[in-house]
Amino acid sequence: xxxxxxxxxxxxxxxxxGGMAACGATVEAAHWAKKNNLKVTxxxxxxxxxxxxxxxxxxxxxxxxxxKDGANTINNYVDYVRNDLxxxxxxxxxxxxxxxxxxxxxxxxxxxxxxxxxKDGSYVHEGRWQLMINxxxxxxxxAEAAKNAVGADNIYERVFITGPLMDGDRCVGAVGFSTxxxxxxxxxxxxxxxxMGGAVGVFRPRSVGEGAGRAxxxxxNSGASAAFTLEAGAEMTCQEVRxxxxxxxxxxxxxxxxxxxxxxxxxxxxGEAYMQTRRDELEKWGPYGKVKPVPANLRNWLMMLDVMDxxxxxxxxxxxxxxxxxxxxxxxxxxxxKLKELESEAWEDFLDMTISQAILWAATNIQPEESPSEIAAxxxxxxxxxxxASGAWVSGPKDxxxxxxFWGYENMTTxxxxxxxxxxxxxxxxxxxxxxxxEGRIAGKAAISYIVxxxxxxxxxFGDIEARKAEVLKPLVTYTENVGKTxxxxxxxxxxxxxxxxxxxxxxxxxxxxxxxxxxTTSKQNLERALELLAFLKEDADKLAAPSLHELxxxxxxxxxxxxxxxxxxxxxxxxxxxxxxxxxxxxTPEMKNDWECFVNCKYDAKSGEWEMKKVPxxxxx
Amino acid sequence: MPSFVNPEKCDGCKALDxxxxxxxxxxxxxxxxxxxxxxxxxxPSQCWECYNxxxxxxxxxxxxxxxxxxxxxxxxxxxMRSTDNIMWTVKFxxxxxxxxxxxxxxxxxxxxxxxxxxxADSELDSTALFTEPASLGLPDVWTK
Lengths: 622, 144
Known about the structure:
The structure holds 2 protein chains of 2 kinds. By secondary structure, chain A is of the alpha/beta class. Chain A has helices spanning 20-35, 74-84, 91-111, 138-150, 224-231, 256-261, 274-277, 296-308, 318-327, 332-353, 355-363, 432-454, 465-482, 498-512, 524-540, 549-574, and strands at residues 5-10, 13-16, 40-44, 58-61, 131-135, 155-157, 159-167, 170-178, 183-188, 191-194, 236-237, 246-248, 266-267, 314-316, 373-377, 391-392, 418-420, 521-522, 585-586, 599-604, 611-616. Chain A has 16 helices and 21 strands. In chain A, β20 (599-604) and β21 (611-616) form a beta hairpin. In chain A, α10 crosses α11 (355-363) and α13 (465-482) crosses α16. The model of chain A has no long low-confidence stretch (mean pLDDT 97). The radius of gyration of chain B is 21 Å and the shape is elongated. In chain B, the strands form 3 sheets. Chain B has a 3-stranded antiparallel β-sheet with strand order 5-6-7. Chain B has a two-stranded antiparallel sheet with strand order 1-4. Chain B has a two-stranded antiparallel ribbon with strand order 2-3. The mean pLDDT of chain B is 96. Chain B is mainly β. Classes of the chains: A alpha/beta, B mainly beta.
């Protein structure tokens, strides 16, 4: 690979990622960097205008606390999140995001995001915490402010980060490669913000043909954050807390507007509403079965019980809901006008954020005002910003965090100089797009504060860069050296192509770690078998082969997914109970246990390959 | 398939250094066939159908056909995105057509000012982010 140029970039703060959290970190850090004469550099694997989970757009902002109107308190939000996660939440982190999130939303509006307003000029709420938006260009607008703040010269697009640069216990940068040119990148930095999203494609998707890419969360969120923080040696938390969204079946269109705004019911094929008929089941899940709203995983669970009893398909009763709203209007003319409005709102909900669902409805001639529409549980995802909780274990803020949760700088991981936000930080669920942006801002400011106060040296022992380069580019060499040994490039005993590697990972996770075909059920023995198969897979990762830069990216994406997979399996195995039955069910430990009301944290030692698992107590803020 | 390209409309972005669809695809799927000077989707099974290639194409050469493994044939959803709104044409398998138009932004393109016009005078050692407390609409950042 001597023909690959090595490009070295020296900076003070390196921001990895380009989504909502990275844009928040960028716009915030750029301000403080300018004041302190520091340089900020951003690296995105795609184009910032349309990268990350909001690339397509969104139809709602899911976290707005409304503090200025006195609508809610911070305590209200913390209660909501803790209950939804069955008690497993860092209250200091959730409160920290909640106290800043309105600020990000108000900025979005100033930057140009259309937020729905009522006759009095107040925001239109979808639910207690959710605002309706015209969000087709949500990401474009948020990226624009970040780009304007940091300047185009400081942004590297289409550069894929493979892993961290470490100097002992300090993170001093990252390495990666261009997906467009033959260039190997070395970013040397005094602090790093990791905000490269969650993980999709760790489990086998329901659609395995052309529709494999129609994941609910984007297929390009491939576990880069988890891999980066794990490889750096950062302590991780809640790696067992995956998320399984119940959405319109197959195209995964959003259901929030239907449940919250249109007050629609979900029923089984017999017309029974499982939230009513299965109500007694909630008694089994301690205090969390009694709260309103019912936690997302328990709502899933009641539906899954109906499915396992053969009472599917499950339907969202859209026609009934629309009819009810229209009937509440005073006269037939007003009702007709209302119906037209609702129809447009329902379609915009899809067109803003899941266009595939609009195609599927059109292809099956569904008019929501006339017929119900099928919903189902999707495959598992790792998305600490939504209703999952996986991510790095980070410091809380000085004024809110318990002593055990505080080590100097907000959102710094247990690795010096390495910060995490959005899907990259754990145990702070329900931050969604707006809270991820706010958390990115918190991390961006804290990282600059760390540089100013700790004055970490720009010079460090960056290790053997040539060896890193060879490691990063190895799949290209493996391909070139072996492709001529068979008559077809896709079958070769000397290597494995990234797509087949991904399918092997997905198959074993699906079958042994509680995926769709296992009806989200697993056990100690199944998880131990998953670890045996993962060990073979990890060995074979050395034989990944790439015929192009695009495929080189695919190789590394799947190496990253493997980190997420292993930390997940080990965490589920360690937690000897079932706490989130609608996310996964341990058939050998089917009940929730009081002595497991704690965090499960894990740490990986990249040198020895050893994992360390531990219980960490929950400290309450209120 | 996800996104596909009409060869009669695609001009390969006139041999600029990269095509618009290639520039924007968040999953690095769109590529230019330099012999034919036409773009194509190199891995339809990894397409999210985010429509960013469709929206950005200067010649409206890119369209989407629903995933063949679960979507019946015959429908289409086509956007027309301008600087401040987007118009959608939804064609049903039955032939029925619906059209919707939604706003997409309230400011001129490129003009998002980082402070949003809020005072940015907080201190590095305070809990206030750079536009706070002004952008919160409160006198102070909440603390316990």
